[in-house]
Amino acid sequence: MALTAVVRIPTRALLRPWARLRDSALGWMEPVGGVEVSTQRFGSQRVLVEPASAAGVAVMTFKNPPVNSLSLELLTELVINLEKLENDKTFRGVVLTSDCPGIFSAGLDLTEICGRNPAHYAEYWKAVQEMWLRLYLSNLMLVAAINGACPAGGCLMSLTCDYRVMADNPKYAIGLNETLLGIVAPFWFKDTLVNTIGHRASERALQLGLLFPPTEALQVGMVDRLVPEDQVQSTALSVLAQWMAIPDHARQLTKNMMRKPTADGLLKKRDEDIQNFVSFISRDSIQKSLQMYLAKLRQKKG
Ligand SMILES: CCCCCCCC/C=C\C/C=C/C(=O)SCCNC(=O)CCNC(=O)[C@H](O)C(C)(C)COP(=O)(O)OP(=O)(O)OC[C@H]1O[C@@H](n2cnc3c(N)ncnc32)[C@H](O)[C@@H]1OP(=O)(O)O
Question: What's one Pfam family here (predicted)?
Fold first, then answer.
């Protein structure tokens, strides 16, 4: 159902975005003359985008059951919806979360990198790169509301955000566990982790393919805050409200200064990275490892 209501917020708040928080804290919510803010819900089959009650904020929910694996379709829809939000200048912050109970995202869709042909691997890897580049360099404030398991590519996606709130449930774990599958986290996955938790902790985590339960993830700095499961999204929204108090231009330039050198590492050699991925993933030994891992996942139920 599309909501087409339009809320007006005062132009002064748009010119001084950090004033919005203060104004709304003072109880200012009356629609007055100014710039139109669309409250239209949009999205696609696997990605739902809903404006939050706070002006300038949207919640992007992934709904690719059963485990929100990052299929080619989900990656494509994610990038399209992110671009829509970025082009609509009324949005300043986005919460990323999941509609799959107990799972934020199971990471890359193993059926996309197992038993396919080189052209498919290349197309898929380009989409993975695109997702990372768009999220990592987004001008929007991104907060991950991690409401479930968050391995590998799911962890990478959350690491592109500016802040991570995770459900404090010991059943859930987060980390780059690629080595457990017999594969290697690419250098830009590694760089994203190093930028978040530092070199030594990353080296250990990557070599061992560690999946951290919430308390350990908080200790190592992989997530920023733990809250009860039913408060993950509301906490993410209140974190965004605090970040919104910072003038956009200063925050965006700072984010870019911190992240661009890392992103440039991939931007300078995207094609080479695709070729490396295709030749690595096409190896018989790697395909065997992936098949065994998938079979184990599937057997778990039987
Ligand atoms: C020399 C250098 C060259 C560089 C080359 C670079 C190469 C690097 C390549 C890639 C990097 C890879 C990144 C990744 O993200 S790989 C994916 C890693 N993901 C995981 O390990 C998670 C696997 N899944 C789980 O652990 C669990 O499913 C869970 C904890 C997420 C959820 O558990 P549960 O609720 O118990 O669900 P099930 O396990 O029963 O799963 C349900 C259903 O979903 C299927 N499934 C699970 N995960 C995936 C997945 N990632 N892709 C596809 N399908 C998945 C699972 O098989 C079940 O299917 P069903 O039996 O048919 O119902």
Answer: ECH_1
